[in-house]
Amino acid sequence: MAALRWLLAAALCVAVAAKSKQWTKDNRVPPPGSLTDYKYISICVNGTAANGLIPKEGKKACDDYHDQVAVGRYANKVNTTGWGILEVETFPGFPNDVQAFAAGMAEGELTRLQIYYHYRNTIEDLCKGYKKYCKDLYSYLTVHLDWLRTTVEQKADTDPYWMHVRRLTFVKLVFSQMTGMYESYRRKEGDDQVKPAIGFDLHPIYMIQLSGELFDINKWLNKTLDPQEYPEAGKCSALLKVAPGNKDMLFSHVAMSGLNTMNRVLKLYKFAYDKKQVPGRIVSFSGYAGALSSADDYTLTSGGLASIETTNAVFNETLYQLYVKPTDQVHCWVRSFISNALAHTAKEWVDIFAKYNSGTYNNQWMVVDYKKFKPGMEKLPEEDLVWILEQIPGYTETRDMTWFINAYSYFPSYNVPYIASISRMSGFSEKAKKFDWYKWGHSPRAKIFDRDHVKVTDIDSLTKLMRYNDYTHDEFAKCKCNPPYTAEAGISARGDLNPSNGTWEVESMGFRNHAGLDYKVRRAVKRHRLQHVLEAAVPRLGRTSIRSSATLRVDGITQLTDSVAKADDWSDSVEEDY
């Protein structure tokens, strides 16, 4: 049986490549650049869902004999704004799992080409040269998915985490949506009807969900890591800043990752679920083709919450062996999806997320409750405005950081644990004895945030800070290195600009496929709307405006956008429910 699973796993990549060729042959994949205007897809049903769902092109394309379950629209604006823009809405009158499946179908139909590109850029070579690792990986994932399937069946009536409206589980809704996307993604021309179902199966769409989990799974399974891929240097930067006079509360995030992940999609899901049961029935987030959760992470919800994270390394690898298991745990991407949907408050968000800790994608989460902030308010709340959660294998800890915002007007996040117990157990404290790089409040980005947050008064000044990287001049980017500075020390990193033959105090200060990919910010002045200001491009460098892909020096990166246009308030018409 183990050998069979390995053979199935090895065949997975080949099968997806074959399907992709079939799409091209059938002319189902449009030529690049042809979808710069919005394309609409309606998901229709004749009678009950048992008769199958039918995708039809158009905003209101269902005829008199069919009811509309969902509608989606997508525009591939990567070459003008740096983002694809996807919006999916479902309609009442249908079971929640049918709505979820239909939403997935709409996304799969609309973003098929981008899913294919993202798979090729990030997943296709996962197993190349790593046979034992992939055998272990797929054995672990198979057992995990079997446990999820069984638990959904057994706990739907007893456990609120697994139970949802009409005795459906929210875990089930997540996987129903993913199954709908996969079935639509692989649908052949002429296959008009797709029957809603739920699958807990290994396939390329599922593997896309695991992008963050693999940081830790790869270490747990002893995969030989490429130094350019290891997230020790930091995966993201984030900042919560209250403007002078409490006139605004700015919540911002920069995703830092490999340049092969720049194929970005800005998403909005609007489900017709009961808003009392699901306060976050509408979510808007920066994401990736085929991914149901942000993975940056940066998400706004109709419940008035905003959540972001930055990733922390785990140096104490015995934690993996002790606590990472295929059963009784739920991966981070599912837990964040559920927390965004079900939480009414920031405290409730971190409490929900802490359940079923998988010890994978170990992050510091920051969750802000915008319902508690009013622009120009005389005094900030004393509690429950902002909570953080930090996770390591086997343990999570939460803190109400509202006191910190009241004391200092900002809270930064830069891939170093704030909570002392997390720092100690994960191995950061031991590393910090030798290098400030690993010490909260003393790393380069910590010092830059502390120095420059006082300059932030509005979105323009915040943008300058979050896109900042003046590594050849900034005193905090200096190191005992050759050359004597590192481009990994900016708020938006540019590891690709470090010389490949340099010498470094810390390995992750050096050259690698790693850069700030974007910038997102949420304001409070229009707090009842899910609005963003976004920018997608590698960061400005110091006193110059170098933003061209010509400066990128990472092998294997063949096509990047030079765009730095903003997608400003793109979802202005979508109001929050609070």
Q: Describe it for me?
A:
It contains 15 helices and 18 strands. By secondary structure, the chain is an alpha+beta fold. It folds into 2 domains: about 210 residues, Penicillin V Acylase, Chain A, CATH 3.60.60; about 325 residues, Penicillin V Acylase, Chain A. The strands form 2 sheets. Strands 2-1-3-4-7-8-9-10-11-12-13 form an 11-stranded mixed β-sheet, with helices on both faces. Helix 2 packs parallel to helix 5 and helix 9 runs antiparallel to helix 10. The longest helix is centred in the N-terminal third of the chain and has 25 residues. The protein is globular and about 70 Å long. The termini are far apart.
Short description:
This protein has 578 residues and is α+β, with helices and mostly antiparallel strands.
Note the gap between the termini. Answer: 52 Å
Give me the Rg, rounded. Answer: 23 Å
Tally of strands: 18
Overall SS class: alpha+beta
**For this structure, what is the CATH class of the largest domain?**
Alpha Beta
Proportion of helical residues: 25-40%
| Second-tier CATH architecture of the largest domain | 4-Layer Sandwich
Strand order of the largest sheet: 2-1-3-4-7-8-9-10-11-12-13
**CATH fold category name of the largest domain:** Penicillin V Acylase, Chain A
Beta-strand content estimate: 15-25%
EC number: 3.1.1.-
Organism: Pristionchus pacificus
Family: Belongs to the phospholipase B-like family.
Protein name: Phospholipase B-like
